[in-house]
Amino acid sequence: MIESRAVKPVVLRSRAIAAVPPEGFPDPSGGDVTWKTLLSTPKTSTDTFTSGIAKCSPGSGHLKAHRHQQAEIYYIIQGRGVVPIDGVEHQVEKGSVIFIPGDAEHGIQNTSQEEDLVWLYVFATDAFEDVVYRFSEEKTPKAKL
Length: 145
Fold this sequence. Notes:
- One of its GO terms (molecular function) is metal ion binding.
- It holds the Pfam family Cupin_2.
- Residues 57-123 form the Cupin type-2 domain.
- By secondary structure, the chain is mostly beta strands.
- Helices cover 4% and strands 41% of the residues.
- Strands 1-3-4-11-6-9 form a six-stranded antiparallel sheet, with no helix packed on it. Strands 2, 5, 7, 8, 10 and 12 form a six-stranded antiparallel sheet that branches.
- The chain starts with 13 loop residues before the first helix and ends in a 10-residue tail after the last strand.
């Protein structure tokens, strides 16, 4: 006998992803970055991960150094940049994958002058609202949801 699953598979096609409005910080204190959260309770039937796509513009695009309880993975879709993790800089480019342990200080900087830096992010939690960004600078921005 096959048991019914409470959580169902989720498939988002490119048209649906393109229709998701980008989010960002209400002021530049968190950095020059936008993101689209694609998988997250309660928007989608998920119980393990939160995932989305983030983007930094050429030249000045960045996400300031911060920490959060959840581990995170970045997969670089486009561009090149630097990801400092606990004071060690890691060069990344299209095809790179990065595991960031929970509570590790990290950020990201677009080092290209020509193209966006775009990455898939995955948090080890089922809801984006569970991720509390603790920025290394005094002023802590709040994400616009």
